[in-house]
Amino acid sequence: MxxxxxxxxxxxxxxxxxxxxxxxxxxxxxSLSSSDAAENKVLAGGHIRLRLGSCMxxxxxxxxxxxxxxxxxxxxxxxxxxxxxxxxxxTDIIPQSPVSPYVLGGGGWYFNRIEMxxxxxxxxxxxxxxxxxxxxxxxxxxxxxxxxxxxxxxxNVDIKVEDLDVDFNANGHMITGGVTFYx
Length: 183
Known about the structure:
The chain has 1 helix and 10 strands.
């Protein structure tokens, strides 16, 4: 994590103001594994990207996923439907190359609908949590207007059921692949 932050800061310092103002919209799929989740999930989402210079950019993304979480003994289970809205700062390591590694980092809000069944009662609760993510990937410039990317992101977020004072660890790993069309 410290290495990713160091590379990000060094890359930011090397960026120039060329190629600013390029706006892109795209779609992605991802595989998500979380610490307390019952299984890995495949999710789909969309994103917009704005180039801020020759190597910097901002990405806003939204996804949808649903999973079951377990904790404790006896196990307490909750079904969580989540809509994460994330903001990321990206930095290309070799911005002039048609294939460039990049680092990213950011945070976002996880809008969660939680359903938890206990022996005596069913609890439905809405929850909003802030989490952060760090990672890196590869960007392929297929044409002047089309890019393909693949990346890894470490995500850090906890989901809490207030009525029962139960926390589920949703920290995990996300492998994403997507395309972006630039205008």
